[in-house]
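Changelog note: in this version the structure field was regenerated for every chain. One regenerated record is shown below for reference.
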Amino acid sequence: MDEPAGGDTLRQDQEQTEASRRLSGREAARQDPSAPAIAGYVLTSRLGAGAYGEVWKAWQQRTGKWVALKTFPRRHGVDWLLLQREVERLIKLDKHPNVVSLLDADLTGDLPYFAMELMEGGSLSRFVDPARRATPEQAARWAEQIGEALCYVHSKGILHCDLKPANVLLDDEGRVR
């Protein structure tokens, strides 16, 4: 591109604009028709479901980031005071490299939710399959990282009461979170 004269901003043509959208991930942010509507988010695919809610891959419109959005339909027997305390605890845990950070939360709306970092590497549950076992060296590194994370969490006065392979996630660098 040519240097703009007089400090004017260069404008992208349609092709460049579309390329920028593809590179930023915005192109992929299409609402799943079966997903609930949550202001400020585009829920694109369901990642999983548990006893109390669902987790969705979502595009956070305000920041332009992909997140994991956990929703809690009010029809389930959720203890809302307990959930509020969980969010308060998660706020304290944003400083450790092996703990997923809380990014946003709204427990007062029609569909309460909280948003956390999206871990694209999946969970350790996939390594329970004998055909996909991790090497002993990798398993030892993960065990050490889990131990460090638990020590950090416990130092904050928090107990993790549901530690299992499905709840241990992998980040894009292969570290457990």
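Spot check on this record: The helical segments are 14-24, 80-91, 136-155. The longest strand covers residues 41-49.
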